[in-house]
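Technical appendix A lists one of the benchmark inputs used to test multi-chain prediction within the project. The record comprises two sequence entries:
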Amino acid sequence: MSLNVESTPLTAVLAPPPLRLIDDTGRAVAESESGGFTLPSVPTLLGLYRQMVIARRFDVQVTALTRQGRLATYPSALGQEACEIAAVAALAPQDWLFPTYRDSIALLTRGVEPKDILASFRGDWHSGYDYHQHRIAPQATPLATQALHAVGLATASKLKRDDTVALTLLGDGATSEGDAHEAFNFAAVWQAPVVFVVQNNQFAISVPLDKQMACRTIADKAIGYGMPGYYVDGNDVAAMYAVIAAAMDRARSGNGPTLIEGLTYRIEAHTNSDDPTRYRKTADVDLWRSRDPIERLEKYLVAQGALSEEVRAEIMAAAEKLATTTRDCMTEQAVIDPLELFEHVYSTPRAALAEQRAFLAAELDGDAAASAVISEEGTR
Amino acid sequence: MSPQQSLETGTAVRAPENLTMAAALNAAIRDAMVDDPSVVLFGEDVGPLGGVFRVTDGLYAEFGETRVSDSPLAEAGIVGTAIGMAMYGLRPVVEMQFDAFSYPAFQQIVSHVAKMRNRTRGKIPLPIVIRIPYAGDIGGVEHHSDSSEAYWTATPGLTVVSPSNPADAYSMLREAIASDDPVIFMEPKSRYWSKASLALPVQTEPLNRAVVLREGTDVTLIAYGPTVKTALATAEQATAEGLSIELIDLRSLSPFDDETVGASVRKTGRAAIVHEAAQFGGYGAEVAARLTERNFFYLAAPILRITGFDIPYPSPKLEEYFLPTPDRILAALSTWEWS
């Protein structure tokens, strides 16, 4: 007998319609349906549109580089731009972002250079940007672990009476991890100024959400922790931005954490080594392609007369320029120093590591001497 | 007596007091918190109760809720939030209530605490102290007497230390809290009530050094934490039998003080290591291997390990059969050929 009960999951039956401010057709919803949230202004939405277009161009470019075998791996966020960009747009300069491996476009949007984002995916080092300059923690690979780091940083901010808020991005699968539960609970008990943004892209690699949980929505779980939860259309950047910005204000004014679920879809495979045809139907992917977050906002902006050909051309040019920068940074050889392997493990030097460093240095000298002999022989 | 100034802290030297190891640890945390406002303390029951072993007694009353707090009962949460706090400039001292209760925090410790500095090329150091009361000999029920040190010493990026006496407990904890590296601070539960007369703030050998507790000529006996007392009793008993034991208290398990221990082994030509943890894949295996690799031609006999058996830690009425004793250590040493 299967462990998975053969009945329609509650998730599908009972989930309410997610909160949205702009519907699938690109029209603003009636005020009575907006859950008390205000539609962001047209200039704000245009800015979000621009960032989404640029982020997608980056994502598509990096996926292409991965297919060419020039990157070890790249987890794409194609289709999830509304969640990613809204989260970053809601941050104040002093706030900290705690991203996962899938959130490279969030890093890009907060100002990290493509070469620094790609350092880890190129295999240069495990992580490669300036965390304090951008106020972004290293991208976390172990699921939900970074949510606890966000709660800790937020709590430290509260103890120091600072107005720094932490925002962490999580996936739907990560909410099954114990660390997610502990993070939600610690945040609520300590009233930490932290915002949890769960991108429910409906699959944890291949496993659909109804095999992760038996409740209606991830946002529903918030009530059990004693914090507000919002179930939001994750392909509506207007709603995501409005809800996250309100949660950031709430945290900043000392009213504690918020859990926000953005319902979205991962259009690409989990990574380049994944085969999504084994676990989902092309028709489903096509359906979600038709709910594209960028196209939806574009319809709205066009209807508002805010997206002239001139503006559109400027955005496309900026996106193409970024794609070029991204390709170009791949041709630059990163400076790899094998002896750096020993440099950062401890702040206090260790004799045993110094010995191993000397061993590797001697091995490298030997290789250099050997190749010098070979090249000398070759020139004869 | 006129109060002197300690070089380290500027704190006045206090009159000697008879202190238990638990009280010395308590004083170390307190003094560190007085000296450095970025030191914060949290964990399970460390607040008004003062910890199940009373190591944090009185600190909640003195420093208040913002610096000393009871956390929810979740060890991954305790360590995970400590990481975030350290990223924001605090120096968290956290407690895992018992050795085996640290296992839920394993991922946070191994994947993040140990790796963060390296992953970020030194840009995010994590000055965190994780205090773990460990080992047995207190009649604890299951899951309350594990010696889990080898999990931590097998993890690059962690500093792992264990004091054996009140003076070291104070000095080593002060140094651990001041360190920019994360430290797993293993407190031998059976030694919490051992006493010494101390004029605080006391400063013993540096954190990463082993010490020769007792000089001898025939055998180097290596111990740490709870087994130092056992080894000392063994050395005394051996003297009566005409055997001269040089006793080393490792203090630091990672890094291992090759210099001090190696010099002793080259002098005596024989070495044995004592620990409570099981033998297979235990810390003693590393000690024996590296001492052999580096000092083989000085050795008159194979290095011995006198340890717990390769079984889960036994129940209270059976632990006396499990723990290394002076008789068992001396019996092991007598298996060598003495020519």
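The longest helix of chain B spans residues 21-35. The first strand of chain B starts at residue 17 and ends at 20. Comparable benchmark entries are summarised in Table A2.
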